[in-house]
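Students often ask why inverse folding is considered easier than folding. One informal answer: many sequences map to the same fold, so there is more than one right answer. In these notes we will look at a single instance of the problem. The structure comes first.
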């Protein structure tokens, strides 16, 4: 497996009662893993623009009887596009989504907006194309670029973390004095 959502979520430092947001949740592998991690008192928002993927996730949530996952039809490439309120989350996850976006800076600003002061932004991204098993070579987003965008957005880089054989993980924090 290229990247294991369950193992990666364990590295995010989520605890019972946290609120987390999965930007570009797709069919929900990370959202479901985060919902289990934050427990019954926590909440996960799965934000996705593709309705067919949201419908698939809704079926899975119902099948697994998960009550702490909210499905949100939203556009993470726009400020306010998620429809979530400011400061709602302890953690925002961008997993395998930056390579798909032409609005990376805006996406990170939207993540920052929904994070509470001191909240964290986790990025899991392809480290290469791997013969087009991952994104096309010209769409690969290297860690240095993500760190630069994070700095431009006034996010503090905390650390990197292992995210699988073909992925990297980066953790940022919203400054505690920022609104």
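Output (designed amino acids):
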């Amino acid at each position: 497996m290229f990247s294991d959502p369950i193992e990666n979520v364990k590295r995010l430092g989520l605890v019972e009662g946290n609120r987390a947001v999965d930007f570009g949740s797709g069919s929900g592998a990370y959202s479901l893993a985060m919902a289990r991690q934050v427990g019954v008192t926590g909440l996960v928002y799965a934000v996705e623009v593709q309705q067919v993927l949201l419908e698939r996730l809704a079926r899975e949530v119902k099948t697994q009887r998960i009550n702490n996952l909210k499905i949100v039809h939203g556009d993470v490439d726009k400020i306010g596009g998620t429809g979530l309120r400011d400061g709602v989350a302890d953690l925002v996850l961008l997993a395998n989504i930056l390579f798909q976006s032409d609005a990376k800076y805006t996406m990170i600003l939207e993540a920052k907006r929904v994070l509470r002061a001191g909240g964290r932004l986790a990025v899991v991204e392809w480290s290469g194309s791997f013969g087009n098993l991952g994104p096309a070579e010209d769409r690969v987003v290297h860690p240095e670029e993500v760190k630069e965008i994070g700095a431009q957005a006034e996010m503090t880089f905390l650390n990197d973390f292992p995210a699988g054989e073909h992925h990297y993980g980066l953790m940022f924090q919203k400054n505690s004095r920022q609104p």
